[in-house]
Amino acid sequence: MTWIKFLHIATLVCWCGALLYLPALLLANARSRSASSFEVPATVILRFLFTHIATPFALLAIISGTLLFIVGQIAGGWLVLKLAAVSGMVLCHVLCGALIVRLEQKRLRGLAPASALIAIVSAALMLAVLVLVLSTPFEA
């Protein structure tokens, strides 16, 4: 059970970091009208980060979290609230993917406010998950 907790926490930290970084990169690219100084276009970097880093960590965090409450037989009202917050994080993740597609298609209208809103909502949901988990009694 300890290794599942470690895997869950590690992948959750990586997913949350990516979930905050993606909207920041989207916001920077939506505001920047000049060409990037990178060799690779920003949209390629964003898509790589989304598909090869953020999404696998999200899937591993969700799978390990599911294993935690199945193996540990964890249940409670707080778990329903936590799962609702995680579902919101998944929605923010999907919306980041949709915004990346819009950036690739050069449809920049509304991209900056949407990116900022996703970052704010993601951070609030992460805080909610943290509060819910830390306010529960510790189990052996």
From TrEMBL:
Its EC number is 1.3.99.-. It is a multi-pass membrane protein. GO terms for molecular function: metal ion binding; protoporphyrinogen oxidase activity. Pathway: Porphyrin-containing compound metabolism; protoporphyrin-IX biosynthesis; protoporphyrin-IX from protoporphyrinogen-IX: step 1/1. Its main location: membrane. The keyword Flavoprotein does not apply. It holds the Pfam family UPF0093. It is found in: Cell membrane. One of its GO terms (cellular component) is plasma membrane. This is Protoporphyrinogen IX oxidase. It comes from Billgrantia pellis.
